[in-house]
Amino acid sequence: MIISVFPNLNNKGVKELCGEIFTVLSSLNTEVFLSDKLKDEFNCSFVNYTNEAELPVICDIAIAVGGDGTTLNVSKKCSPYNKPVLGINAGRLGFMSGIERNELRLLEKLVTGEYEIENRLMLKADVLDENEKRIASYQCLNDAVISRGNFARLTDITIECDGRTVLDMRADGVIISTPTGSTAYSMAAGGPVVSPSAECIIETPICPHSLMDRSIIFSTDKELIITAENDLNDPPLLTVDGQEGFTLKSDYKVIISASDEVTKLIKIKPENFYEILKKKLIERRAQ
Questions:
Q1: How far apart are CA 222 and CA 14, in angstroms?
Q2: Which ranges of the chain would DSSP assign to H, the alpha helix?
Q3: Residues 69-123: tens digit of each pLDDT
Q4: Three-state SS annotation for 37-86
Q5: Each residue of 185-233: pLDDT tens digit?
Q6: 281 secondary structure, DSSP code
């Protein structure tokens, strides 16, 4: 079995944690691969190095070591190749992680096959120019956010579905989320928490200047057409999973639909979504 490891060395203690991970994986007779950019960081005789772009191609399983952002980033790299990802939490919340840093003994289950794979819905966000030409396309695991520019001015946002206007509002922006992303920015903006096993698209306004501030749930066979207009010198921004951005002109359209790609997350522990929700979001915040 080939396992590619993607560590986020910006997280505290990740380098030391990776040393422990490599030791466990070596004892399980797996082939471990790292990016060749990390050769100077690790001195392990049983670790192989290759071009970073090859890591999701050659592996059977990918391991992301870091927080939720790391797991999200690695999952998006692996989804085109249909490779499953295990997140090992070395961050704060670790809602997408499969195990914690003190549970490395569970890595044995990767070899014995004692795990499940959760298929997570992804969204596709296409940007069309004034001539209806696609000029940008993104894959989203958490969310696509259309927000105001640099100044505290409201943005005029219109959302259409099935040829009809669903929303026409002034707001700081709008979040279009997957169920996976429902526990991220969408939840912070007052959106619903949705089980990742659900198949739906969640729309949540950001500080709308309206009495209508509720989320709307769409089925995955729907396509949302979004336009946004702001001050000419301060255009709105499309942000995808908090990692990629695109400046929008007033005559551009953002088309949101369910993606053909899915993210595969490895689930080793028997906890279900609601137990994880209680442990990580409710109990932790009460401490």
A1: 41
A2: 14-27, 55-58, 68-78, 108-112, 185-188, 273-277, 284-286
A3: 999 999 999 999 999 999 999 877 777 889 998 999 999 999 999 999 999 999 9
A4: HHCCCCCCCCEEEECHHHHHHHCCEEEEEECHHHHHHHHHHHHHHCCCEE
A5: 999 999 999 999 999 999 999 999 887 789 999 999 999 999 998 766 7
A6: I
CA pair distance 166, 201, nearest whole angstrom:
14
Mean pLDDT comparison of 43-47, 161-165, 268-272, highest-scoring range: 161-165
Q: How many residues appear in the chain?
A: 287
In the chain, what is the straight-line distance between the N-terminal and C-terminal CA atoms, in Å? 41
Contacts of 276 (CB under 8 A, 6+ apart): 95
Per-residue tokens: 180:
């996976």
Report the amino acid identity of residue 241: D
- Copy the structure tokens of residue 266: 């490895």
User: Widest CA span of the chain, in angstroms?
Assistant: 62
* Residue of 36, 40, 68, 162 with catalytic role: 68
Q: Residue 68 catalytic? A: yes
Beta strands in the chain (DSSP E): 2-7, 31-35, 47-50, 61-66, 85-89, 99-100, 116-128, 134-140, 143-147, 155-161, 164-171, 173-177, 200-206, 216-219, 224-229, 237-240, 244-247, 253-267
Distance CA 128, CA 55 (A): 32
